[in-house]
Amino acid sequence: MTAAIRLFYFPTPNGRKISVALEEMGLAYEIVPVNILKGEQQSPDFLAISPNNRIPALIDGDVAIFESGAILQYLGRKSGLLYPLDEPARCQVDSWLFWQMAGLGPMAGQLSWFTRVANIPGRDPRDYSYARHRYLKEMLRLYGVLERQLAGREHVCGAYSIADIASWTWVDQYHAQLGGLAPFPAIAAWHARVGARAAVQRGMTVWMPEDDGGWSAAGNAAQIARGKDPTERPR
Ligand SMILES: N[C@@H](CCC(=O)N[C@@H](CS)C(=O)NCC(=O)O)C(=O)O
């Protein structure tokens, strides 16, 4: 039987937010791989669902959604889970969800981009040290914000919610950018706590392409093993 929910997916932090949420909420779904390393996000069929040509996107009956934050809110409303009904609590979850969407995700993405470009010999002759400096500084600021929020709390908004899932997949994949979580003990404890959840572990491993092109945390580790340091700090 085909599951009602179809998740257009690639195993990046934004894609994994949704597979983790679906696993946490116990909703049946089918993975539709969109291999962004092969340009499948540009296909006309996919653009009809996701006009910004980015994963993730989701179809559920006559509902079609793109943007991972909007999808998390939809799944929270649909399941009645991990998205409080109480308005003050929901506003807190929305605040931290948008914080991740507008800050933590894009800044980590830019830092990763400029670090990787700098690590590809012959890729581009320009000097990216200022870009790396800027995004590393912003990442450190954002981790400081998250550290303060998590100090004395089990989860970002107290109770486990879609706000945790949104930030967790980004911290999980990219904390090596900052040289690890040692300077951020509350984030480190939260990262371990959320990572120990069975649903999170299932959601993180739902589908992998044969060659991840170095996008994943495993790809980062392989890059380090080849002598290229993805955490290289700006001069
Ligand atoms: N704000 C969007 C960002 C989505 C996004 O950037 N997706 C990336 C993977 S994490 C993608 O599809 N990249 C394909 C490309 O750059 O062409 C969301 O949260 O859904």
What would your notes on this structure say?
This protein is of the alpha+beta class and 235 residues long. The protein has two domains: 5-79, Glutaredoxin, CATH 3.40.30.10; 87-225, Glutathione S-transferase Yfyf (Class Pi), Chain A, domain 2 (Up-down Bundle). 54% of the residues lie in helices and 8% in strands. The chain has nine helices and four strands; from the N terminus they run E-H-E-H-E-E-H-H-H-H-H-H-H. It has helices at residues 13-25, 44-49, 68-79, 87-119, 129-150, 162-174, 185-195, 198-204, 217-225; strands spanning 5-9, 29-33, 57-60, 63-66. A four-stranded mixed β-sheet has the order 2-1-3-4, with helices on one face. Helix 1 crosses helix 6 (162-174), helix 4 (87-119) packs parallel to helix 6 and helix 5 packs across helix 7. The longest helix has 33 residues, at 87-119. It is globular, with a radius of gyration of 18 Å. The termini are far apart. Bound molecules: glutathione (GSH). The site of glutathione has 11 residues, from loops. Residues 12, 14, 36, 41, 53-56, 67-68, 101 line the site of glutathione.
What topology emerges from the helices and strands here?
Elements: E1 5-9, H1 13-25, E2 29-33, H2 44-49, E3 57-60, E4 63-66, H3 68-79, H4 87-119, H5 129-150, H6 162-174, H7 185-195, H8 198-204, H9 217-225
Parallel strand pairs: 1-2
Antiparallel strand pairs: 1-3, 3-4
The structure holds glutathione (GSH).
Name the features.
Glutaredoxin; disordered C terminus; 235 residues; globular; 9 helices
